[in-house]
Amino acid sequence: MAGLRNLAIGVHRQDGHTNIAAALRRTVRNHLRPLTALGLT
Fold first, then answer.
1. How confident is the model at residue 15, as a pLDDT?
2. CA dist., res. 21 & res. 17, Å (int)
3. pLDDT given for residue 37 in this prediction
4. DSSP per residue over 1-41, as a string?
5. Which partner for 23 in 15, 17, 35, 41 could form a disulfide, CB atoms 3.0-4.6 Å apart?
6. 5 in Cβ contact with 13 (< 8 Å)
7. How far is CA 29 from each of CA 3, 13, 26, rounded to the nearest angstrom?
8. What is d(CA 3, CA 41) in angstroms, rounded to the nearest whole number?
9. Ranges of the chain with pLDDT below 70
10. What global pTM score does this model have?
């Protein structure tokens, strides 16, 4: 679980987010956003 959390934090940091909590809340609202950030869609 810690590895997945670190992956999520790393992806948000790569996207330029400095407030990880706000970025995670935004991601929860759109389930495709993480896939787009990883270049999978």
1. 86
2. 10
3. 78
4. -HHHHHHHHHHHHHTT-S-HHHHHHHHHH-TTHHHHHTT--
5. 17
6. no
7. 22, 18, 5
8. 23
9. none
10. 0.67
Both structure tokens of 38 = 């990883």
CA–CA distance, 24 with 13 (Å, rounded to integer): 11
CA distance 29 to 14: 19
Rounded distance between C-alpha atoms, residue 41 and residue 18, angstroms: 24
Residue in the block written with tokens 């990883």: 38
Token code pair at residue 25: 């809340």
Euclidean distance between CA atoms 2 and 40, whole angstroms: 22
